[in-house]
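Homework help board

Subject: predicted structure for assignment chain

Our instructor gave us this sequence and asked us to write out the predicted structure in token form, then describe one feature. I got the tokens but I'm not sure how to describe them. Can anyone check?
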Amino acid sequence: MNKKILLFLVCINTLLYSEDFGFDMSELEQMEVKSYEYSGYIKAEQKHQILNESSPKYNTKNKNSMDSYLGEAYLNFKYYKNKYTFTTDFMANYENIDKSENHNYNLNQAIVNYKYNDNHQITLGKKTSKWGKGYFFNPVAFIDRKKDPNDPEASKEGYTQFNYNYNKVYNTQIQNASFDAVYIKTTSNLNDDLYNKDSNVMALKSYILYKNVDIDFVYFYSDEVANKVGMDFSANLETNFEIHAEYAKDDDGYDSTLFGVKYLTNSDLTIISEYFYQNEIQSNTSPFWDRKYFINKFTQKEPADLLYLSVYYKNSLNLNDNSHQNNFGIIYTGMKNLDIDFSVGKYFGNSTSEFGSKLVDKFTWLQLKYSF
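My token output:
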């Protein structure tokens, strides 16, 4: 039978019996690729904190407890036009910490990406690069703002930059290779968190996927601050067992190292463990400023077959002074797009240690997060 006649008969048959099979032409229309997409969240937090009378900062409050409130909204929007993609990330937040109010509005990302073909693309604008393989720490994230291990998934503001990317797929043991070249200009008003005076920065990253191992080599050059080099890798030893590591050093002698694992058991228990070392103590105004840390997080999905519930425990240990922070929490996801997270936490250590000297001794924390 002629192929055109056969195709015609199939189409006629489909139209005749479309009602029986619930065929709806509007479903085809909905399958049309959209020129835009968006996502985001709105969240509210409340934290009740019992203060540490042994803390050197206790006399700044001189009371037993305090309360904090946070409201935050985040929106990611992408628009596609031919070979161009326009991306914006906007964040607004409000804080009330012990009746001291503050609010911020940040444009975390605002970029235009031009994809010339499958191998070449350029990106211009304010971008969050997200270099590194670690979950709590990223020593090789030379052009990202420092991650806070207490909130590692928080959205971060990017740096204004020009980025060229080359990508190639192979049918060999090296399955994929890519290269990024990034130029960043800093002034007292532009990218001043990276360096607050006039300077020129070039960052390079080479990536290869060898079998099931991801490997990055990175280099950071500046005409004003110390140059840096680093590398990272991640590998799946099994489908449920991943290891990763990072190493970075600069011309001034500073170096840092990260080793980590992520393991999923048959009972849906996820274990994330990371060891972090840096050879120099940083400013104690920033979190996790000491030399050595070991962080473990255990998350059990639906314990005792309790649907929509997860429980987690996280321990952050300073290996130099043996002080540590502990969190135990419960997450409920039984309502559409809404996560409810409740946790309790406590700091341990003597009054001169990192966590033992904190103003807060223990706390309860509640977060409601609606995603769209």
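Reply (TA_rk): Your tokens look well-formed. For the description, you could write something like this. Confidence is low (pLDDT under 50) at residues 1-23. That's the kind of observation they're looking for.
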